[in-house]
Fold Protein-export membrane protein SecF.
Amino acid sequence: MRQLDFMGKRRIAFAVSVLLAVVAIGALAFKGLNLGLDFTGGTLVEVRYEQAPALDDLRSQLGDQGFEDAQVQTFGTSNDILVRLQQTFDNDVGQRVVGILDSEANPVDLVRAEFVGAQVGDQLRDQSGMGMLLALAVVMVYVAFRFQYKFALGALISLGHDVVIILGIFALFGLDFDLTVLAAILAVIGYSLNDTIIVYDRIRENIRKSQIDDMAQIFNESINQTLARTMATSGTTLLVLLALFFLGGDMIHNFSIALILGVVAGTFSSVYVAAALLLAIKLQRQDLIPSKKENDEEEELP
């Protein structure tokens, strides 16, 4: 079967990865993330209509009454509407929102009105950031223990690449970043790591049993051997995520976007970042095969 020359295109792939990373970092630096109510604090109001309303009309009605930053989305069914307000208002804000949205043609009832303090939002933001850093640190230790430190470095940069790309796209397009998106990013770290481990495992196996010293050729053979599995896994996962994106409703819209971006970026990075970096940092057969002296010492042990 014809082998695809993945490593022959690694310099082009590196250039694409660097360009995307620079754009993502620039978007994060100059625009920043559009943090949701979970992190900033504010007011959440849930209402229920008798008939499904047009969300754009609701945004216009709220904007005309001074709620310009209101985020309006469906919640469960098309008749249940969730209104997110960045500011914290008094206890009558729920009734005020109902008064603005209510009409004789389509009456609306207040389901709940909740307040999230800024201190809680700050705490969630800090804890989520620490959680993400801890996850990356654990991944690095795991890969270094299972494989070798050069593999750990490649895996860590690959996962960082995926996370930065997702965050950059959310910042660039001003998409709402809330706890569901954070959960999606943590899921992407696990997905991308799994894909990377599959490729790494085959690379290590082929290096140990191969008689050739051309690392690029060994890497190509390894990636081609795992390609069918990678495409099947990524393809079926994307089918589910596309169904969530188009049919899941507004509540998980950004969640599905983050996962779709993560699957695409993770599949790309497992080949052109994680694997290709091993060539850049000069992985050698000796890094994986114990020397004769080490073998002799092990045989002398009782």
Confidence is low (pLDDT under 50) at residues 292-302. The two ends are 48 Å apart (CA to CA). Residues 215-247 form the longest helix (33 residues). The chain has two domains: 7-35+120-289, 42-116.
